[in-house]
Amino acid sequence: MGSMIDDLLDPAALPDPTSRVSLVQTHISLVFVGDDHVYKVKKPVDFGFLDFSSLEKRRHYCNQEVLLNQRLSEGIYLEVLPVILEGGRHRLGGEGGEAVDCAVRMRRIPEDRLMRTLFERGGLGPEQLEAVAGLLARFHGEAERSERIDAFGTLESFKVNTDENFAQTEPFVGTTLSRDVFERIRDWTGAFYREEGGVFEKRVREGRVRDCHGDLHMEHVCFLDPVAAIDCIEFNDRFRYSDTLADIAFLLMDLEFRGGEGAAAELWSRYAERAAETGMERLLNFYKVYRAYVRGKVIGFQLNDPRIDEQAKQEAVRTAGAYFDLARRYVETAP
User: Fold this and answer.
1) Is the torsion defined by CA of 176, 318, 249, 335 positive or negative?
2) Which ranges constitute the DSSP H helices of the chain?
3) Which CATH number do you get for residue 257?
4) Are residues 6 and 61 in the same domain?
5) Could you give the percent of the chain with pLDDT greater than 90?
6) Tell me: the pLDDT tens digits for 125-151?
7) pTM of the predicted model, to two decimals?
8) Which domain holds residue 182?
9) Are residues 145 and 241 in the same domain?
10) Which of 108, 140, 172 represents a domain boundary (last residue)?
11) Beta carbons within 8 Å of 208's beta carbon, 6+ residues apart
């Protein structure tokens, strides 16, 4: 993929005028950032829970990304463009040549409009928290519900997710998390299922399992007009079909990870009132453990990516470890 990366870092290869192009990599995407637009190419990876290994699959999930994200954002996700190879050079869109990959074209969101940036600058106040609470309560109340979606909210179905997490992180024991942290969180999770398992069916009966966002952390909430959320999970229904509490838990966890316990408490209070949530603190804490653990797992996957340099990998070890440590603290202070 090296030549494609090099080619798409040329402003002339992009469909929108831009003075420069930069590249941001995640474990699953190559994101080419221009002045006013962003172009996301999915890496040809297969993690089991995510399979972008063929062009057909990458095209399908690009289309899903545009469709699903329009639920929580307006005018940000624009279209899917082919990556064209012609005359030994790659470009985005246009006529002729061979379509060898595809990309999601998006409007670029200014960094200072992201929830994380506002928080770090002290600009996340009651007005902003009210807007987020309102957005998510409305979204969760209106999100699709069906028998198929309900099935993902059962204990047996959700346990697939946590079992997978422990299987996929065990190879990282000694690198991003210790054996003690791994076993403590695994054993606590099993005990929660045994002691509190009935709450999962209760939530299904109450209509709380919906087609949610699935990856709702602070870098995915944008204070535009109106407030929006971006970058939901498109690649696996299992991670998006969930209890609405699991969705909001991700955002609360991320606030607390960055030292925003007060803001998290206020956001939860405002959301709980609008979503008519009462007496769910134990389940909310369970989902915070799950979300922190997933974040540590996903960041740790960067260690297996040969395209990421050593400095970035060392940072991944540090950040993943901090998320695993937060999951441990949630376990130790569980209500």
Assistant:
1) positive
2) 2-8, 55-69, 115-120, 126-142, 147-151, 155-169, 179-196, 198-205, 237-240, 244-257, 261-275, 281-300, 310-332
3) 3.90.1200.10
4) yes
5) 92
6) 999 999 999 999 999 999 999 999 999
7) 0.89
8) 113-332
9) yes
10) 108
11) 153, 243, 244, 245
